[in-house]
């Protein structure tokens, strides 16, 4: 686990904190590995998810996790609210030191059919965070916006709105330099809700055919823990307006399916590409290459606005776009990668 920003005594707000990334982030924060916060507030609009997360974190009885969940009794707080609601966002931000903004509409087909809903949540929600901090002069030290590889060269509504969310946070550094706004951009989280891997796990368990859109389809792959590493890395080392991208493996989805057939082969059915879906994902575009620097296990994309860049920061470390089309893992390598996330996969496949 990487050395991260010291959050000891900090007051943390996690918007969209009941999602798969939010829950894993909260668990990491409660472990104290990044310094034990004074308070962690989970802000989301789904009371049912908050209820079950509260039960999971406050009534956990597994001995090995007791240290985390006992801390949750004193530190973890839940607040119902919608990032679209400026008043609710303002109330949640009061007396907060660090914000992790994970609230989003992220299902690609849903955003295609309800594009303005994605605009209101993914762009309007980010703007409400920025506006509230600025207008109320809140003493928030850092904001981390959780983006996606689909924001790079976007072709779907989800990616377009996330690309604009990134720009909202980046530009906020110019208007309100008292707070450092950064972003992270990463690919397919292996065990997240809606991911292909838990779907495959369920299909394999039930001995059903595995459904794939196209044989050419590729994706970046990373675990939930690696996603949290990325979030904490930009918090520690990110400069104002930067977007951190993890260096992670990629694979053909058909090879992921084969890697998960551990008890004999199952049929593969090709269903065709879904509305707004890409064949390959990109995390750093050709245009962004010239303003990207190395940051350990990450690429750090500099802001497009020149006044937010520092001289000597850009190294042009990439000669071409960073795409899931390239350097794909073999089936054996995928089995090894998936084995390390089997607990996460089974948990989300089971619902």
Describe the fold and architecture.
The protein contains 13 helices and 16 strands. With 351 residues, the protein is of the alpha/beta class. It has a domain of 138 residues: NAD(P)-binding Rossmann-like Domain (Rossmann fold, 3-Layer(aba) Sandwich). Strand 14 and strand 15 form a beta hairpin. The longest helix is centred in the middle third of the chain and has 21 residues. It starts with 10 loop residues before the first strand and ends with a helix. The model has no long low-confidence stretch (mean pLDDT 90).
Question: Features of this protein?
Answer:
13 helices, alpha/beta, 3-stranded mixed β-sheet, 351 residues, 9-stranded mixed β-sheet, Rossmann fold, 18% strand, single chain
Overall 3D form = globular
Largest sheet: 9 strands, mixed
Given helix and strand content, the structural type is alpha/beta
Question: How many strands appear in the DSSP assignment?
Answer: 16
Mean pLDDT: 90
Low-confidence stretches are none
Looking at CATH, which topology of the domain at 188-286 and 305-310 and 319-351 would you report? Rossmann fold
Largest sheet, spatial ordering of strands: 3-2-1-4-5-6-10-15-14
Percentage of residues assigned to helices: 40-55%
Topology order in helix (H) and strand (E) letters = EHEHHEHEHHEHEEHEEHEEHEEHEEEHH
Number of helices: 13
CATH class of the domain at 188-286 and 305-310 and 319-351: Alpha Beta
Please write out the topology.
Elements: E1 11-15, H1 20-31, E2 39-44, H2 47-58, H3 66-75, E3 76-80, H4 86-93, E4 98-101, H5 108-113, H6 115-135, E5 142-146, H7 157-175, E6 180-184, E7 188-189, H8 196-205, E8 210-212, E9 218-222, H9 224-237, E10 243-246, E11 250-252, H10 253-260, E12 268-270, E13 282-284, H11 286-289, E14 292-295, E15 298-301, E16 322-323, H12 331-339, H13 342-349
Parallel strand pairs: 1-2, 1-4, 2-3, 4-5, 5-6, 6-10, 7-9, 8-12
Antiparallel strand pairs: 9-11, 10-15, 13-16, 14-15
Helix pairs in contact: 1-9, 4-6, 6-7, 8-10, 8-13, 10-12
């Amino acid at each position: 686990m990487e050395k991260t920003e010291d959050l000891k005594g900090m007051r943390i707000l996690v918007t969209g904190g009941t999602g798969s990334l939010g829950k894993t982030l909260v668990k990491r924060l409660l472990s104290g590995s990044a310094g034990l916060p004074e308070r962690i507030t989970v802000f989301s609009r789904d009371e049912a998810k908050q209820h079950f997360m509260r039960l999971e974190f406050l009534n956990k009885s597994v001995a090995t996790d007791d240290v985390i969940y006992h801390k949750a009794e004193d530190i973890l707080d839940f607040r119902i609210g919608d990032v679209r609601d400026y008043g609710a966002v303002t109330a949640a931000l009061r007396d907060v030191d660090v914000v992790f903004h994970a609230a989003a509409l992220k299902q690609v087909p849903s955003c295609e059919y309800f594009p303005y809903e994605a605009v209101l949540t993914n762009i309007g929600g980010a703007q409400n965070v920025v506006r509230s901090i600025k207008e109320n002069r809140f003493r928030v030290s850092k904001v981390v916006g959780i983006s996606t590889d689909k924001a790079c060269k976007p072709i779907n509504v989800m990616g377009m709105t996330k690309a604009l969310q990134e720009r909202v946070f980046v530009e906020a550094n110019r208007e309100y330099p008292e707070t450092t706004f950064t972003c992270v951009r990463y690919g397919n989280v292996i065990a997240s809700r809606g991911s292909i891997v838990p779907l495959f796990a369920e299909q394999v368990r039930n001995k059903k055919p595995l459904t794939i859109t196209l044989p050419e389809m590729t994706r970046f792959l990373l675990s939930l823990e690696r996603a949290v590493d990325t979030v904490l890395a930009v918090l520690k080392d990110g400069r104002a307006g930067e977007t951190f991208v993890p260096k992670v493996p990629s694979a053909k989805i058909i090879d992921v399916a084969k890697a998960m057939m551990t008890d004999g082969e199952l049929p593969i059915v090709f269903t065709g590409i879904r509305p707004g879906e890409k064949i390959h994902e990109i995390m750093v575009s050709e245009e962004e290459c010239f303003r990207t620097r190395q940051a350990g296990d990450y690429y750090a994309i500099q802001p497009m606005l020149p006044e937010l860049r520092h001289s000597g920061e850009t190294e042009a470390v990439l000669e071409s776009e960073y795409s899931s089309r390239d350097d794909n893992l073999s089936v054996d390598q995928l089995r090894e990668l998936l084995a390390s996330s089997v607990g996460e996969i089974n948990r989300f496949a089971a619902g």
